[in-house]
Amino acid sequence: MKRIVLSLITVVLGTVLTVACGESKEEASKVTKSPKVASTDTKVDNTVADISKEVDNTVADISKEVDNTVADISKEVDNTVADISKDVDEKLSDLGEKTDELKETLTEKFNEGKEKVAPGSTDPNTPPNCAEDIKNGEWVHYKMSGMEMKQKVTEVTEEFYSIQNETIMNGKTLSTNSQKVPRKAPEVAAVAKATMTPKYSRENVTVKGKEINCWLIEMEANGKTSRTWMSNDVPVGGLIKSEYDGKVVMELVDFGWD
């Protein structure tokens, strides 16, 4: 822009000087008739001043127009950036919602698959085995009809675990004994499989004020129904409650890990 202005000034000045020189020569030839040199110099000075003023005004106008154009472009860029940022935020928000929906769907499908299989088993037609992760020192406390029983794990191997049993009545220990329990549930005889096919379902049971989601295993034999509640969240085999013919046989009241 400055180069264009300078070129304009050069051309204008060249034209003015050419005119001035021509007029000077003409006046010189007439110098004997009338002395007008001072008048010509004044005219040249005024013309140069006018041109300079016009050039300054033109430069100012061009500079102002450039500033306005730059301001308009900057504003347009800011608006474009804001629109892009808003669009990106909306897309990210939408992506987050879709991700949450996908997680919920996968969780539901996973839970549906879990509910078809008993704990400690890969087959819904085999009994659960909650003793796979049994550890030394864990214990349970059950109440029964007029009695209580405490069990504590004292030894764990790959094949079995040892339990110390304590039977209590009216706050006094009646007997203590130890037993070895296989960690893998024994095979059910073919006749038992045919006549006592277990039915698995989910149910919540509250123990020590804590709600536990457990498996309910139901079986029928000789016209009577046995119901057992089990969970991997409970130590020493996972037994929570046992019923036979509608009567409670054993019920968990406390448990822990030493």
Q: Structural class from helices and strands?
A: alpha+beta
Contiguous runs where pLDDT drops below 50 for at least 5 residues: 30-35, 113-127
Number of strands: 9
How many helices? The count is: 3
The fraction of residues in strands falls at: 25-35%
Helix content: 40-55%
What would the principal axes of the Cα set say about the shape? rod-shaped
How many domains, in number, for the residues?
2
Q: What does this protein look like?
A:
With 258 residues, the protein is α+β, with helices and mostly antiparallel strands. It folds into 2 domains: 2-101; 138-257, no CATH class. The chain is 43% helix and 32% strand. It is built from 3 helices and 9 strands, in the order ααββββαβββββ. The chain has helices spanning 2-29, 37-114, 190-195; strands at 138-144, 147-156, 160-169, 172-182, 199-207, 210-221, 224-230, 239-244, 247-257. Strands 4-3-2-1-9-8-7-6-5 form a 9-stranded antiparallel sheet, with no helix packed on it. A hairpin with a 2-residue loop joins β1 (138-144) and β2. Residues 30-35 and 113-127 have low confidence and may be disordered.
Topology:
Elements: H1 2-29, H2 37-114, E1 138-144, E2 147-156, E3 160-169, E4 172-182, H3 190-195, E5 199-207, E6 210-221, E7 224-230, E8 239-244, E9 247-257
Antiparallel strand pairs: 1-2, 1-9, 2-3, 3-4, 5-6, 6-7, 7-8, 8-9
Helix pairs in contact: 1-2
